[in-house]
Design goal:
The complex is a heterotrimer of chains A (276), B (304) and C (441). Chain A is α/β, with parallel strands linked by helices. Chain A has 12 helices and 10 strands. In chain B, α1 packs parallel to α5, α1 runs antiparallel to α10 and α3 packs across α8. Classes of the chains: A alpha/beta (276), B mainly alpha (304), C mainly alpha (441).
């Protein structure tokens, strides 16, 4: 394990009753790199995500996260909200989970909750309108504005998130996760339901997030996105890792092709195609 | 020991009544996913209709007790189930796909309507009747304490068992029962496969109300009185029973009912009568905190 | 051709009429069965304790006839209005008026509220009624924090009202503490109860939380009834000190408020003072709520209502966020309770039944979840409407229940179903409540 490793998943297993969703999975994710987790439907990818982000307690195994400054976190032992608050792991959801009745701007403000709570003196300073809180709030609005600009939604800042088109909602959810200032960003199928143009702009966004120093862990079915932006790919099938490596190597791995062929012809075709 | 045995009998009888009401809560919750707040008041209406029917039958000179009981049972079930149907039709159906709080408030409103309807139409005073079923058996006798099993208690428990058997058959073996289970799983899919969802939900309310009517009649026979307010507390306790047994589970509702009946009786017998309702409500809270899926309920896996 | 069309319309009209009559006939038949025994027969315990009964078939006939005619009228109205869905049952003109009201109305309402004691100085009844309305406005605003903002369904809000009322009653009668001392104490005590009760149950969702809070409300009431040595049981606490004008009592004597000011004594002085006290308390509640909504905690409450899972993923501590909402709502309830106790001078468990909780919840939901103005309007409408039925006391709850059902069918989202953003860059556009979620907790 080198200093450049941000996330180490070690012998992770998750059982639901008799069903083994994840079975002794181990992999690592490099700092400032994009690591993709792929595999046929039902391979257990989202379960891995839910274990990493604290929504499930794994049956066994360890998940270690190391910050730039060397601080270590055992994610399987942290409570859900502390994973985001202390370990700085942010995530998005397969089926978008914005706050639909709040504006795009408000969504990004909620994401800065912990910083603003502290600035508002746990509400008391804010209630009496202390100048220090005012400044913090303006700063938060500026940060939100910056993100809205980056995802091209500045014009729609005051529209309800639920009223935005699907592709905008996807990007807003990523921006919201980024507003928590994460060390590791976990994206669950960010390109699902996007058209080719939207996928391309998503790739661009993710590459720019990587270049600013945030590590990304990605579940994705859209192989063009995966092959284009990933630095490292982990392939799962039936809850186990069947291959790992650089995009090129994984694409040529017969085991991977077999897994996709055995599972779903379309996906196999997608893998082949993007490899061709 | 004898005292305990007597309380055990009393608790089972009370528990049968709670269980019958609890089934109505659990069925409706299973299918429409809402607490039918007015269900306790449906039980109260059932008690009133049983009372009135009984009075009429006696005054026209009928004296055969089993025949009276049978007629009272059938009339009470028939009319009360229509109340259940009407409540669903008026207050819940227009709000079925609405905002979640709306049916809840509508149900609370309906509960007030039923409670005050019977207060206005039948007066606020408690209505007592003379014991209908008399006699009983002495089971044990020691230290001058007699454990009694009255005929009324036997009738309550027997009726409950018979009705439960019919009801279980209805849910597990008939077309209606299959439709009900289908709607419980997925209403849209059930509708696509040709299940008449509206009708199935109506039938659920109808059956739930009919069982509540039986409970109301049993209450009348056992305690010899009804009043307009009895549905509120009994309703919350029966709901507790449904939750304790695992909401959505029919055997669970009956089991929960029996447990609540036993706990309430034992608490009154050994601790304090004044706090028996506090005990029942505390159990509700404790169960929900430590065992939110109840004894026989299915665990709920959170989908992320 | 024209003849044919008119024939066709005639045929379809005949069909429509037949349909209406068929429907009315079925409704009347259902009503006949439903009411046959409950209204047709009246039972009562006779002089010897024996139950007697008499028939009321004339009443039954009248009611069945009313149902028959009513059904026809409703059906005609429905056809005249065209096929309306539940969501669009409000005509656009009404919607526009309400939207306009949202902007111009609050300042006018506030000015009017301040002038009420001046305008109605001689009408004691109206002053009493406005104090009552304001108490419910305050309760509604308090519960709005819990239900409207945080999306937590609380059916036992009256428990905190009771805690506040009994705190003041017991502290003042036993230890002689003054009203102004007790007011914050009552708020704090109620908030503590809120945290205590909230902590174990807040992980429950939706209907379960509702039923548990209902159980808590009942437990508190039952304990008050049964703990006679402390609370006086069903007899309640009497002789609760009336409020003074910051130490100067409203009495006839030389030390009294009137004598000190050199004006003639009138019992109305105290009423007017009480009016301004509750107005100030209600406005304080409103001010704090509006402030809190714009702070991170308030945004977290609303985010929680929208999506709890997303909140967890953003590092928001769900438990403390819910607890603060619960405690804040409880605190306002407790303060309102203390005011209630000092106004009445006497409290008993009868004032704290489930019906009160349901009434306050109805105010919040009818007002439109989260809308401060809507809650105030709903309180005025419901409490005012309740007063209209003062003469027909026994029909009051019946009408209230029916009104609840009808209002929910008419406007399931409440009177003012728009949400105003808490922060904006360019323009403050209201968000339709159709988008906002109602919370699962």
């Amino acid at each position: 394990m080198s200093d450049d490793t941000i996330l180490t998943v070690d012998a992770l297993s998750m059982r639901f009753g008799g069903v083994v969703a994840v079975n002794g999975l181990s992999f690592t994710a490099e700092r400032r790199r994009i690591t993709a987790l792929i595999g046929p439907n039902g391979a257990g990818k989202t379960t891995v995500f839910n274990c990493i982000t604290g929504f499930y307690k794994p049956t066994s195994g360890a998940i270690r996260l190391t910050h730039d400054d060397g601080r270590n976190f055992r994610l399987e032992r942290l409570n859900d909200f502390r994973i985001s608050k202390q370990a700085k792991v942010a995530r998005t959801f397969q089926n978008i989970r914005l706050f639909p009745g709040m504006t795009a701007l408000e969504n990004l403000m909620v994401a800065q909750h912990n910083a603003l709570m502290k600035a508002s003196g746990f509400t008391f300073l804010g209630l009496i309108g202390a100048p220090s809180y005012r400044a913090a709030e303006l700063h938060a609005i500026d940060q939100a504005k910056g993100w809205l600009d980056r995802i091209g939604l500045l014009e729609r800042a005051d529209d309800a998130a639920g009223n935005l088109p699907y592709g905008d909602q996807r990007r807003l959810e990523i921006a919201r996760a980024m507003c928590t200032e994460p060390a590791l960003l976990c994206l669950d199928e960010p390109a699902a339901g996007l058209n080719a143009r939207e996928s391309a702009s998503l790739s661009e966004l993710l590459l720019s997030i990587r270049s600013q120093g945030t590590s990304i862990l990605l579940i994705e079915h859209d192989m063009s996105v995966v092959m284009e932006i990933s630095d490292q790919i982990v392939v799962m099938d039936y809850g186990m890792k069947i291959a790992e490596g650089a995009p090129q190597a994984v694409r040529d791995d017969p085991k991977v092709v077999a897994a996709y062929l055995g599972a779903d012809e379309e996906e196999a075709a997608a893998v082949m195609e993007s490899g061709a | 020991m004898d005292y305990f045995a007597q309380q055990l009998i009393n608790g089972i009888v009370l528990g049968s009544i709670y269980g019958l009401i609890a089934i109505g809560y659990t069925m409706v919750y299973g299918i429409v996913g809402m607490i039918n707040f007015a269900h306790g008041d449906i039980f109260m209406i059932g008690g009133f209709i049983a009372l009135i029917t009984f009075l009429i039958l006696v005054s026209i000179g009928l004296t055969t007790v089993p025949l009276i009981l049978l007629i009272v049972l059938l009339v009470s079930m028939a009319i009360t189930s229509l109340y259940g149907w009407t409540v669903e039709r008026i207050a819940y159906r227009p709000l079925r796909h609405s905002f979640r709080l709306a049916p809840m408030l509508s149900a609370i409103g309906m509960s007030f309507v039923l409670m005050n309807f019977s207060q206005v139409s039948q007066g606020a005073r408690v209505k007592p009747i003379p014991p209908v079923i008399t006699g009983g058996y002495s089971l044990l006798e020691s230290n001058g304490f007699v454990v009694r099993l009255s005929n009324a208690q036997i009738v309550v428990v027997l009726t409950t068992v018979v009705l439960l058997a019919i009801f279980t058959w209805l849910v597990s073996r008939t077309r209606l029962g299959r439709d009900m289970r289908a709607c419980e799983q997925d209403q849209t899919m059930a509708a696509l496969l040709g299940v008449d969802v509206d009708r199935t939900i109506s039938m659920t309310f109808l059956i739930g109300a009919a069982l509540a009517a039986v409970a109301g009649m049993m209450y009348l026979l056992y305690y010899g009185l009804v009043d307009f307010y009895m549905g509120f507390i009994a309703g919350i306790k029966a709901f507790t029973a449904a939750v304790l047994g695992g909401i959505g589970s029919l055997p669970g509702a009956m089991l929960g009912g029996l447990l609540i009946g036993l706990i309430e009786t034992m608490w009154s017998a050994y601790f304090s009568v004044e706090y028996k309702d506090v005990a029942a409500f505390s159990i509700l809270i404790v169960v929900l905190i430590f065992l939110p899926t109840g004894l026989l309920g299915r665990p709920e896996v959170e989908k992320v | 051709m024209a003849v044919l069309t008119s024939d066709l319309t005639q045929a379809s009209r005949r069909e429509a009429i037949a349909f209406i009559f068929k429907k009315a006939f079925i409704s009347a038949l259902v009503a006949l069965v439903l009411f046959s025994l409950m209204i047709g027969i009246r039972t009562e315990a006779g002089p010897t304790g024996q139950l007697i009964y008499w028939t009321r078939f004339d009443d039954l006939a009248i009611i069945v006839a009313v149902v028959f005619v009513g059904s026809i009228v409703v059906e005609l109205l429905r056809q005249w209005w065209g096929p309306v869905g539940i969501a669009t049952a409000v005509p656009p003109s009404v919607q526009r008026t309400l939207d306009f009201a949202g902007k111009a109305f609050p300042p006018l309402l506030l000015i009017f509220a301040f002038l009420v004691p001046v305008i109605f100085y001689d009408q004691r009844y109206l002053l009493d009624l406005s104090i009552l309305v304001l108490t419910y406005v305050m309760l509604g605003w308090g519960l709005n924090v819990v239900v409207g903002l945080a999306g937590l369904l609380d059916l036992g809000y009256v428990a905190f009202y009771a805690v506040g009322a009994y705190s003041y009653a017991l502290l003042s009668t036993n230890f002689g503490l003054s009203f102004w001392m007790c007011l914050p104490l009552a708020g704090i005590l109620a908030a503590c109860w809120g945290v205590m009760l909230g902590f174990p149950v807040l992980r429950l969702r939706g209907d379960y939380l509702a039923i548990v809070t209902l159980a808590f409300g009942e437990i508190i009431r039952l304990v008050i009834i049964n703990w006679q040595s402390l609370t006086g049981g069903p007899n309640g606490v009497s002789g609760i000190p009336r409020p003074s004008f910051f130490g100067i009592p409203f009495t006839r004597g030389d030390d009294g408020f009137a004598a000190r000011l050199g004006i003639e004594y009138s019992p109305t002085h105290r009423i007017v003072f009480l009016f301004y006290v509750i107005l100030a308390l209600a406005l304080l509640t409103n001010w704090v709520t509006i402030r809190l909504r714009r702070l991170p905690i308030g945004r977290a409450w609303e985010a929680l209502r929208e999506d709890e899972v997303a909140c967890r993923a953003l590092g928001i501590n769900i438990t403390t966020t819910k607890l603060t909402a619960f405690a804040t709502g409880a605190m306002f309830g407790g303060i309102a309770g203390a005011f209630f106790a000092t106004r009445q001078g006497f409290i008993s468990p009868e004032s704290f039944t489930f019906q009160e909780s349901a009434l306050v919840l109805a105010i919040v939901v009818l007002g439109g979840m989260g809308s401060q103005l809507g809650v105030a309007l709903a309180a005025i409408a419901l409490i005012g409407g309740f007063e209209l039925f003062r003469g027909f006391d026994q029909y009051r709850m019946l009408v209230f229940g029916m009104a609840m059902v009808l209002l929910m069918i008419w406007r399931p989202r409440g009177l003012i179903s728009h949400r105003a953003p808490t922060v904006f860059l360019k323009q403050n556009t209201a968000i339709s409540a159709e988008l906002a979620r109602e919370g699962r907790g």
